[in-house]
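User: Here's a chain of 307 residues. Predict its fold as tokens.
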Amino acid sequence: MDPKRTAKSLALDFAKVSGQGSITRALLRAMKIGFEQPSSDVRYPGGRKAACCISVDYDHFGNISNDPLRFQPGADPNKFSLNRTGTRLLLDLSSKYSIPMTWAICGKTAEEDMASYWKIGEANAGHEIGIHTYSHIDVSSCTESELEHEVKKCIEVVGLEQDPKTFVFPWNRVGHFEKLKQMGFKAYRGKERIIRAPVMERGLWNIPPVYYIDTRSLGAYDVVRKFVDFCVEARCVFHLWTHPWSIVYSENKDLLVENVLDPLFAYLNAKRNAGLLSISTLGEISSVMQNSESIHSADVAVAPVGA
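Assistant: Prediction complete.
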């Protein structure tokens, strides 16, 4: 999706192409989101027919005002402060609704603010700690030995008691799948945005993203809720992802939470309570996929919508 597009423009697109309030393939094409209907017997954690997962990239590298793909209108250029505030807001929400998240941790970021990082581990919502390398390197261009060093250093810094299951590629630039598999990883967040069930790709379960939420998403609650409904109806995974620093306005830190995230988490919780949706970490979903005989472990190519 064009990073300059606003929630308002997406809402207008949604209004133009949706029928009876439903997500349509036309809208998915407009937002460059693929769709693959899973098999009818696919199951997710708890035996549910659909799943939601939330991945949070815990990093605050560089000056966001110099990165047009990550510039947040009205945001404070101090990423450290934004990351600390955003982490607190997300943890408060997860505690309020008992919603676990997969936190993709950069070791260097954890080192710079261990107080915030430890709050993730102390939370009681069942969070997963994933690995986002130590210094946010480009995995698509590094060597295997560099990747191994980065992963081991990150694990050492964050002090994990169990081997991590989930790897999130910085900038979603993928590579070295065999090495990651050898190191014990089971799941990753793919680059392409697509609504489907997880699939085994190059030895790891690809749980693709659906919607990235940040301060540009103000006013997009109705659209995001429709994606949740579509994923439930289609027996797919609704994968929301974000950064702590990307959900915070400098002038009103709670603005996005109050208008989008809190009502969205309440809606997800209601779907879970109705037995329609599991809310799980990427590691939990990959474990169920691994044990499910209904999923065929085969490399697949992502077909464009409407192909």
